[in-house]
Amino acid sequence: MYWRGVISTAAAIAGVYCAGGSPALADSGVRKPPAAVRAESTDTKEQARDVPAPAPLFTSVQASKGHRSYMEDDYFLSADGRFAAVYDGHGGASVSKYLRQNLYTQVKANLPLEEQECGEEHIIQALKAAFKTVDDEVLKVRHWSYQGSTAVAVVIHPTVAGGNGNCSIITANVGDSRAVLCRRGKAVEITKDHKPNATAELDRIEALGGNVRWFGFIDPEGRPIEGTGVYRINGNLAVARAIGDSSERPFVSGECEIRSMPMDHEGDQFIIIATDGLWDVMTSDEVVQYVQAVMGGAMGALREGESRGEFPLASDRPVDMKLSDWTQRYADDRGMIRAAMMSRKKKMARYLAQEAIRRGTMDNVTVVVMFFR
């Protein structure tokens, strides 16, 4: 994959990915948000055939308000599916919306302008520069002083020209939204949550003169009871890093953390990127297991006399036929089997968001699932 930025007379930034030296998918930069129903909709698409494997084959998205009356989450997907990000706003939705409109554009603006293969280091430096630029710009807006947003982005980057399948997974993260990879059936956290009580964050905050306190229930020995509260910086924010929040600087940091790892083309199945509305009520292992259960679960209609409400988990609903039996019966109709599997992938982000709400999350929930198989 090559990255090429083009600067127009209107100073809008556009980029073109190239494969093997030939133009591929073009993306104009900022994608307009869906209509007001975006908080209830699922957006999925298959990628173009001329994008070299293993670009995500399918991407499922769900953004839900949950039990709240307002929506502060946002997300962005590039046209070719190789860049995906979620943003969890706090104090308002302005900063998360700004990130959706500007972060990806800034990434492309910081990539080499010449038509050449763009290496992994170019992507890393572009991500660092983009995160710093959007943070600096948000801090300049006075009426956003008490607003901010987390940001986690995933880039799937081919490392060798010609589309031979060598890829890196590059992540950039600020805050406690999270990206998790399913590798050979196991959950691998490819970002780190920036919580105030994390050792490195706690040391940094206290060195600056701030404090981190527990707000929640404690046991008879005075120890925090996990799940009943949160750690907060100076009694306010429950996140150690974020874009914006000028009122909380320097205790809250806007510095992003970059990670990179080679893709396991045989073992990597999907990546889940989500705001903490999901991770507050499900562990990384549970989320990966949930996706696998839905994809490998039973097939068919509900048995007579049984209601869907009795079995809120898709994987728990009793049906007439197991998936393995169903695929054997229809082995000659590969189109039917593929359509059934694609239907589940299409709805996967929605299933996860609904499961988080069922488990009691009180936050907005935004989920992106990038499938490689």
From TrEMBL:
<keyword id="KW-0479">Metal-binding</keyword>
<keyword id="KW-0378">Hydrolase</keyword>
<comment type="similarity">
    <text>Belongs to the PP2C family.</text>
</comment>
<dbReference type="GO" id="GO:0016020">
    <property type="term" value="C:membrane"/>
</dbReference>
<dbReference type="Pfam" id="PF00481">
    <property type="entry name" value="PP2C"/>
</dbReference>
<dbReference type="InterPro" id="IPR036457">
    <property type="entry name" value="PPM-type-like_dom_sf"/>
</dbReference>
<dbReference type="InterPro" id="IPR000222">
    <property type="entry name" value="PP2C_BS"/>
</dbReference>
<feature type="domain" description="PPM-type phosphatase">
    <location>
        <begin position="55"/>
        <end position="372"/>
    </location>
</feature>
<dbReference type="InterPro" id="IPR001932">
    <property type="entry name" value="PPM-type_phosphatase-like_dom"/>
</dbReference>
<dbReference type="GO" id="GO:0004722">
    <property type="term" value="F:protein serine/threonine phosphatase activity"/>
</dbReference>
<keyword id="KW-0904">Protein phosphatase</keyword>
<dbReference type="GO" id="GO:0046872">
    <property type="term" value="F:metal ion binding"/>
</dbReference>
<dbReference type="InterPro" id="IPR015655">
    <property type="entry name" value="PP2C"/>
</dbReference>
<protein>
    <submittedName>
        <fullName>Phosphatase 2C-like domain-containing protein</fullName>
    </submittedName>
</protein>
